[in-house]
Amino acid sequence: PALDGAFLCSPLGGLMGAQAVLGLLVWALIADTTYHLHAAYGWVMFVSIFFWIVTVLFFVTYLLQLQLKFYVIPWPLVLMIFNAVATVLYITAFVTCAAAVQPTSWRQWDYNRRAAASFFACLVMIAYGASTFFSFRAWRGLGSNAATSQVTDHA
Question: Which positions are tagged coiled coil (predicted)?
Answer without folding.
Answer: none
